[in-house]
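RECORD TYPE: inverse folding
INPUT: structure tokens
STRUCTURE:
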């Protein structure tokens, strides 16, 4: 990806759009570089609504063009750009006659832009086409190109993002007694071992999730349903302080909040009660408590009740302002709380004598509320 270049003589923007029936819309905004290559500026996609599922193919493709041209209008307005689509019928939009209804409004909204629609074969339009498709939630190893290796390469000693080596994790998993039962089941699922009679809360959670635990390269991994090929390391309790300290306090942690720290930990590890452990660690962080301000509770609102006109007067002074021709730099504002009748009086200074002279023109009142 690259930043957009708006300098004179910069390459043109290219907008690739596509629409999939009953699924969604996709687009890729690119810009041609000096060497002729195209670099992506932004990706975009959205699901189609219930009413849009009844649109024909041409109307859906036109909807994709209209939607993403408006979305990226800050890049495209005032510049000539190219729209590429795998639907050839869109090339004849400019020559259509007697267009009515929704399509007419769409075409009218596109008149503010200077662009040309070019047909692109579907085989070459995979960038926008993939963004308009529905992802496969339950993708197995057979359909995942990343999992199709020519041979299995043994892992000698891997280093994870939190400074843990595979050997260190393996030794901690073997030494942890709470993982013994699920480790035996993962090594030989067909044996169907019986659950221990006495188990802690963590052991009960692990035993309930035993079918999702795998052993690869002598390491225990947790693979949640619907995650495809993504596996997370089953972290033993002995390594929790080191991992949480690295991912929250370390250079890559940045003392983020509870939610973002949980997302960072969940991307690599799993253990029973992960969310609660991360929350407790973040709440007890001394640096976060010192640096991050606490939530300030707002004072309850106090309604102002007036029974009649000019019983309660509200007053304030605005300024200093640029000096006027008469030498005034302040404005005395007076308003009746009941009728909202306003008065603005110019003042040369904020001295009490000047305020008294101007304010007494309204006479004495039951209550005067000042804000200065």
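DESIGNED SEQUENCE:
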């Amino acid at each position: 990806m690259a930043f957009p270049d708006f300098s004179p003589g910069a390459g043109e923007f290219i907008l690739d759009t596509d629409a999939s029936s009953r699924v969604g819309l996709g687009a890729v905004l690119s810009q041609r570089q000096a060497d002729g290559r195209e670099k992506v500026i932004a990706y975009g996609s959205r699901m189609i609504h219930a009413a849009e599922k009844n649109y024909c193919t041409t109307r859906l493709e036109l909807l994709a063009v209209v939607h993403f041209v408006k979305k990226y209008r800050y890049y495209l307005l005032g510049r000539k750009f190219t729209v590429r689509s795998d639907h050839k019928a869109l090339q004849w939009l400019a020559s259509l006659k007697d267009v009515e209804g929704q399509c007419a409004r769409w075409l009218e909204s596109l008149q503010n832009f200077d662009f040309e629609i070019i047909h692109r074969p579907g085989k070459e339009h995979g960038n926008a086409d993939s963004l308009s498709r529905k992802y496969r939630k339950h993708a197995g190893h057979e359909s995942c190109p990343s999992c199709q290796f020519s041979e299995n390469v043994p892992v000698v000693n891997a280093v994870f993002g939190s400074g843990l080596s595979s050997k260190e994790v393996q030794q901690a998993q073997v030494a942890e007694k709470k993982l013994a039962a699920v480790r035996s089941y993962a090594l030989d699922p067909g044996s169907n071992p019986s659950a221990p009679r006495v188990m802690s809360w963590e052991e009960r959670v692990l035993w309930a999730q035993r079918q999702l635990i795998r052993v690869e390269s002598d390491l225990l991994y947790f693979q949640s349903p619907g995650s495809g090929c993504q596996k997370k390391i089953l972290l033993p309790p002995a390594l929790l302080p080191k991992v949480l300290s690295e991912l929250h306090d370390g250079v890559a942690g940045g003392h983020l909040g509870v939610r973002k720290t949980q997302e960072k930990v969940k991307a690599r590890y799993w253990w029973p009660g992960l969310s609660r452990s991360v929350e407790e660690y973040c709440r007890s962080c001394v640096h976060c408590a010192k640096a991050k301000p606490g939530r300030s509770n707002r004072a309850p609102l106090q309604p102002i009740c007036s029974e009649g006109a000019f019983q309660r007067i509200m007053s304030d002074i605005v300024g200093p302002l640029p000096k006027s021709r008469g030498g005034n730099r302040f404005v005395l504002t007076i308003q009746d709380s009941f009728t909202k009748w306003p008065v603005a009086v110019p003042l040369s200074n904020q001295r009490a004598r000047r305020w008294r002279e101007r304010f007494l023109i309204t006479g004495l009142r039951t209550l005067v509320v000042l804000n200065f």
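NOTES: Residues 165 and 286 are 28 Å apart (CA to CA).
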